[in-house]
Please model this.
Amino acid sequence: MLSKVPDSILEQIETDQKEIILNGPPGRLSGSVQLHNRNDDSARLRFIDLKPTKTKKTKSVDEAPLYVNTRLRAGESRLENISISLPIDTPPGTYDQYITLGGKQQKVKMVVQPLIAIDIQPSSFTFQGTAAGTKHLAQLTVTNTGNMPFQIPEVKHVAPLDMDLLCRAFGYGFRKDPEEGFTATMDHVTQNLKEHLPDWARSEVKQAGKIIETGQSMLVEIEVTLPKQAQEKNDYDLLLRFWDEEIAMTFKSHTA
Model:
């Protein structure tokens, strides 16, 4: 619950700053202010209401109070950290508001930085079928949780990893000729890896280039084609980088 500071207390709280500046992404803008308590008793400050200027008014900004959360002893002066949390879709820009301290209006400038952020659901998929050239389609919901339009990126190719590849390669190298030394054994391991390491898998984002507006969602389809070196009896895993999120895909072997 927001606890508004009584006007009678704020009348005796002063600052010598001509302008209070808060800067950051919309979820948390922060700054500092020098406060002087001219009350005869200690003063507890939690939230101070912001008031819009006549020149620029934004509803989402007007509804958010300034968070102070401090206690000042009588006569005490101290530099305090302050912050404000705005709706995540508040557009980037500079917003001028003011608060009333010591019977005077103090200008508050809020600099909202651009925020590009997305949410992906689901973020993991399991497919059946690992033969070379097999196509799999992942359908995911991408939500724009930032304050800027988001453009669906392209994902050209990803590396499928056979999780048992290293185990098989080392097993082959150690059994190839038990009498050989370390260097020859490692040569066998390396050669086996070269022969069985799959190439890049091809991926296509069918909605690449489309725009998702702030707060909106879009169904995005990603088609992954397994490379020609893929074996239908092996399992594969890959991590697909989608903007700053990761999508995990598992491909399980399957034969009729």
About this structure: Residues 131 and 231 are 5 Å apart (CA to CA).
